[in-house]
C-alpha cells in the first residue's frame, strides 16, 4: 500500500509514520542508493515531501547522503535489533570465521563501512594469537585497510569520488599509499578484480586480504584475514587464499539468506 492510498484506517492511525517507513523501505538490496526523485516515485510522495522525509532521516542518523544520493546507515539496525539479536550477520558469520582462522592459523574479521571508517562486527583470532584482543566495534580509517578499500570500491563511482576528495592520507609505513590519486587507482583495480590486498601499509610485515560478502547486488560486509609475511607457508594469495575467502564469503551470504554475486 502506498502512502497516498486511503485505506480503512483506525482513529489512531498516524499517516506520517507510514510515510517514514515507506521511505526507509524504498532502500533495499536492489536499490541501496537512491535520489530524491527515485524515492518520490517509489513511495508515491511528492518530490518536496520525499526530500523532507529523507533529510529528516539524515538528521536522525538513519540515512547518509553523498551528492544527490541517499543510503541507509548501520543505525537502521537499531530498528530491528530485538529481532536480529537471535539471527544477525555477525552471529551467522562467526562459525565460518572460526573455521577460517583455524584453517589458516590467521585472524579473520567481518567489518562494515560506517562513514569513513570500518567497524569490526565479528572476529576470530588466530589460534597462535589467542592472547591478542581486538574489541568488536573498533574503528580504523577505511582508506588504510583491505576491508575498508574493498567496501569503498563497491560503492557507486560518485560516492568514491567524494570520498577521495575529503580523505586525508597519512603514512603508517614506507609502503602506505601517498596520495588520493594513488588510492583512487587502487580502488579501480580492486573493483575490477573483486578482492583487495593491502601489503605492509598499516604495519611492516603484515598484509590484509579482503573480499566482499554480497546479498544480490548489495554488499553486506567485508571478510578479511590478516597475513604475516613470514607465515604464508607457501600459499599463493591469488591462487589459494582469494578463492578460499570467496568460498567462505559465499557460505556466509547463503546462511544469511542471500547469494554471492
TrEMBL record:
Residues 75-258 form the IclR-ED domain. Keywords: DNA-binding, Transcription, Transcription regulation. It comes from the Bacteria. InterPro entries: GAF-like_dom_sf, HTH_MetabolicPath_Reg, Tscrpt_reg_IclR_C, Tscrpt_reg_IclR_N, WH-like_DNA-bd_sf, WH_DNA-bd_sf. GO terms for biological process: negative regulation of DNA-templated transcription. GO terms for molecular function: DNA binding; DNA-binding transcription factor activity. The keyword Transcription regulation applies. Pfam families: HTH_IclR, IclR_C. Residues 14-74 form the HTH iclR-type domain. This is Helix-turn-helix domain-containing protein. The lineage of its organism: Bacteria, Bacillati, Actinomycetota, Actinomycetes, Micrococcales.
Amino acid at each position: 500500500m502506498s502512502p497516498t492510498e486511503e485505506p480503512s484506517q483506525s482513529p489512531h492511525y498516524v499517516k506520517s509514520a507510514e510515510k517514514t517507513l515507506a521511505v526507509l523501505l524504498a532502500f533495499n538490496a536492489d536499490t541501496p542508493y537512491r535520489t530524491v526523485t527515485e524515492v518520490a516515485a517509489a513511495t508515491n510522495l511528492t518530490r518536496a515531501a520525499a526530500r523532507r522525509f529523507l533529510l529528516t532521516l539524515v538528521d536522525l542518523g538513519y540515512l547518509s547522503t553523498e551528492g544527490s544520493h541517499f543510503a541507509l546507515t548501520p543505525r537502521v539496525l537499531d530498528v530491528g535489533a530485538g529481532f536480529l539479536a537471535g539471527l544477525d550477520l555477525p552471529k551467522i558469520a562467526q562459525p565460518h570465521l572460526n573455521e577460517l582462522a583455524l584453517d589458516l592459523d590467521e585472524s579473520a574479521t567481518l567489518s562494515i563501512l560506517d562513514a569513513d571508517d570500518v567497524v569490526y562486527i565479528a572476529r576470530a583470532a588466530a589460534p597462535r594469537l589467542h592472547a591478542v584482543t581486538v574489541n568488536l566495534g573498533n574503528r580504523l580509517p577505511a582508506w588504510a585497510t583491505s576491508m575498508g578499500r574493498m567496501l569503498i570500491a563497491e560503492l557507486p563511482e560518485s560516492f568514491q569520488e567524494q570520498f577521495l576528495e575529503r580523505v586525508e592520507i597519512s603514512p603508517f609505513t614506507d609502503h602506505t599509499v601517498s596520495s588520493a590519486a594513488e588510492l583512487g587507482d587502487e580502488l579501480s583495480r580492486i573493483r575490477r578484480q573483486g578482492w583487495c590486498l593491502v601489503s605492509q601499509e598499516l604495519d611492516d610485515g603484515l598484509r590484509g586480504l579482503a573480499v566482499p560478502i554480497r546479498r544480490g547486488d548489495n554488499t553486506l560486509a567485508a571478510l578479511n584475514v590478516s597475513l604475516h609475511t613470514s607465515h604464508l607457508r607457501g600459499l599463493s594469495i591469488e591462487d589459494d587464499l582469494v578463492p578460499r575467502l570467496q568460498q567462505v564469503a559465499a557460505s556466509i551470504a547463503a546462511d544469511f539468506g542471500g547469494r554471492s554475486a
